[in-house]
Specification:
single chain; mainly alpha
Length: 233
């Protein structure tokens, strides 16, 4: 009969220690209650599988294999749990990003739509409003015209720019650059696209200025934000 060492079984399986200890006690004629600390040395040095009764060899082997299977199962479960947790974390991050992107796009679309509606309303208002030309205009007159042409939500921004550019003087001229009018168009004759009377009619200047701010900055408030950062627009 071949004699196979059971040291590997004894070391690998904590569960098998008690069983093997009992068996060693039988084989060596010593008490079955030998300590676990002494068992490994005894098993390594003196105990061979062939020395253990055949009926108990299967118990030793089964205990060791069961312990190994349990350890492997625990490792597999931990790895599977970690994998699931990582997948859930990645998915949550992707979902959060997708939700934020959708919210940002929705806001941008709503803002663009609001600007378009406001611009269209301003264009319709300017197109259908016909103002009688007067021989002279006070600042109050010019501001009243602007309130009729510029959308109410944009009037303050428009007014801020005009205050800084011309102090509401529709005949204001920059001697250095040649900029002219309420919004200091440069050159002034660009305002002819809104009317041939651009030099004498503040309503024409207001219409042109509003169109310029809408086209270039999206709105008078967009133009005012730029003006605040650069002192020109």
């Amino acid at each position: 009969m071949s004699r196979i060492s059971v040291r590997g079984f004894a070391v690998a399986s904590a569960t098998a220690v008690t069983t093997v200890g009992a068996v060693v006690g039988v084989a060596a004629g010593s008490p079955a209650a030998a300590s676990n600390d002494n068992f490994e040395a005894t098993a390594a040095d003196t105990t061979l599988l062939a020395d253990i009764p055949a009926g108990q060899q299967a118990q030793v082997q089964t205990a060791s294999l069961t312990q190994q299977a349990d350890a492997q199962s625990a490792q597999a479960s931990a790895a599977a749990k970690k994998s699931v947790e990582e997948a859930a974390r990645v998915q949550a991050a992707e979902d959060a990003k997708a939700k934020k992107d959708a919210a940002d796009k929705d806001k941008a679309d709503k803002d663009a739509k609001a600007r378009d509606l406001e611009t269209q309303a301003a264009s319709r208002s300017a197109a259908r409003t016909d103002f009688a030309v007067k021989s002279s205009y006070s600042i109050a007159d010019v501001q009243a015209l602007a309130r009729q042409i510029v959308p109410s939500g944009q009037f303050q921004c428009f007014s801020n720019i005009v205050n800084n550019e011309s102090s509401w003087n529709f005949q204001a001229t920059n001697s250095g650059s040649g900029a002219y009018g309420l919004v200091q168009a440069l050159p002034g004759n660009k305002m002819a696209s809104a009317g041939d009377d651009w030099q004498t009619n503040p309503a024409t200047q207001i219409k042109w200025g509003l169109g310029y701010m809408n086209d270039r900055y999206g709105s008078p408030c967009g133009a005012w934000s730029f003006w605040q950062a650069h002192s020109w627009y």
